[in-house]
Design goal:
Layout lengths: L1 H49 L2 H8 L7 H6 L2 H9 L9 E14 L4 E16 L3 E16 L2 E8 L2 E10 L7 E10 L21 E12 L2 E12 L2 E3 L2 E4 L3 E13 L2 E12 L3 E2 L2 E2 L7 E11 L5 E9 L7 E6 L2 E2 L1
Antiparallel strand pairs: 1-2, 1-17, 1-18, 2-3, 3-4, 3-5, 5-6, 6-7, 7-8, 8-11, 9-10, 10-13, 11-12, 12-15, 13-14, 15-16, 16-17
């Protein structure tokens, strides 16, 4: 009996010691977990203090996300409107535009035929105070046939420099308005009044032009219109005074954004000329109107480069039969 009691007490003592040891282990493990949690809380507080709102915004945006304003200014529609004179470059923006034009005219009544191909270079700079300056100069390759005589020639065309200003911004019921002044220097050779086999790389006369362009957006469509008045300066050649007269051009059309990277547009232009006089005598046929219908489109190739193609169809006898222009404006 005593032996059984002793064995029972021993078992109870061992069990109690074992339970005491397990409780101590659990307490140590809980203490260790509390310490780890405290360390994690401290690290989180440090990270929250280090991450500023700007870093949070940067982390939120996708790595390849771009400024919405930058995307908007680089849409194909906006790139085309800059070429149309209905939109100005932002201050500090530069655009270099190599382009090439081909025109063909066959005047059966006068028995003349003319092919003209001209690569050209244009540069545009966006200036403060809603201004833009632009300059362009072409190089002309010309092939003419006048009756039985034919000729081939090439040379630089007329240099043109213009300054544009945003007069009014677009409002819900008011179009945007841009005014421009352009000076065209007679740097291109022209012997129309001097030679039986004429060469016409340029107009042959210095000219000053004032224009105004209106633009209204009706997404995804843009409607634009332009009026320009050109004063051509008279000159004396071979002892004769030649006054080409002034001209007025009305141009209107629309552009359609078919997507962020593509757009289409169509325009109609009509130019009315004053009569050209030679020593006060009016030259017949010099006041015929010039009408063109133009169809084309533009596409953005990458972040800086776009391509613009326009095909013009002559609507009057004084206009080229057709004209093709391809431009590749590159923005910096």
């Amino acid at each position: 009996m005593k032996m059984h009691v002793g064995l029972g007490m021993c078992a109870l003592f061992v069990s109690a010691a074992s339970m005491g040891q397990s409780v101590e282990q659990l307490q140590r493990q809980l203490a260790e977990k509390d310490a780890e949690n405290q360390q994690l809380r401290q690290r989180i507080e440090v990270l929250e203090r280090e991450i500023t709102p700007s870093r949070i915004e940067q982390a939120r945006r996708a790595p390849d996300a771009r400024d919405p304003n930058e995307d908007e200014s680089n849409r194909a529609l906006e790139r085309a409107l800059v070429r149309e004179g209905g939109l100005l470059l932002a201050s500090g923006t530069r655009e270099l535009e190599p382009n090439a034009a081909y025109s063909y005219r066959d005047n059966k009544l006068a028995q003349t035929r003319r092919h003209s191909f001209g690569p050209a270079l244009a540069v545009r700079f966006g200036l403060p105070w809603r201004l833009q300056i632009e300059a362009s100069i072409p190089y002309v390759f010309e092939r003419r046939r006048d009756g039985a005589a034919s000729s081939n020639s090439d040379g630089s065309g007329d240099l043109a420099v213009s300054l544009s200003h945003q007069l009014f911004n677009e409002r819900p019921f008011v179009p945007a308005l841009i005014g421009a002044l352009q000076y065209q220097a007679a740097t291109g050779k022209n012997t129309v009044f001097d030679n039986a086999s004429p060469v016409a790389h340029g107009s042959g006369f210095n000219a000053i032009q004032a224009s105004v362009t209106a633009l209204k957006r009706i997404d995804p469509l843009v409607i634009f219109g332009n009026y320009s008045f050109t004063h051509t300066l008279a000159e004396t050649r071979n002892g004769s005074k030649i006054d080409p007269g002034n001209s007025q051009t009305v141009r209107f059309g629309s552009a359609l954004a078919t997507g962020p990277d593509t757009s289409l547009r169509a325009a109609l232009s009509v130019t009315l000329f004053d009569k050209t006089t030679l020593d006060g005598r009016i030259l017949s046929g010099t006041s015929d109107a010039l009408g063109m219908l133009e169809l084309g489109g533009s596409a953005v190739l990458n972040a800086s480069t776009a391509i613009d193609v326009m095909v013009g169809i002559g609507l009057t006898s004084n206009a080229p039969d057709f004209r093709i222009l391809v431009a590749v404006p590159i923005r910096f």
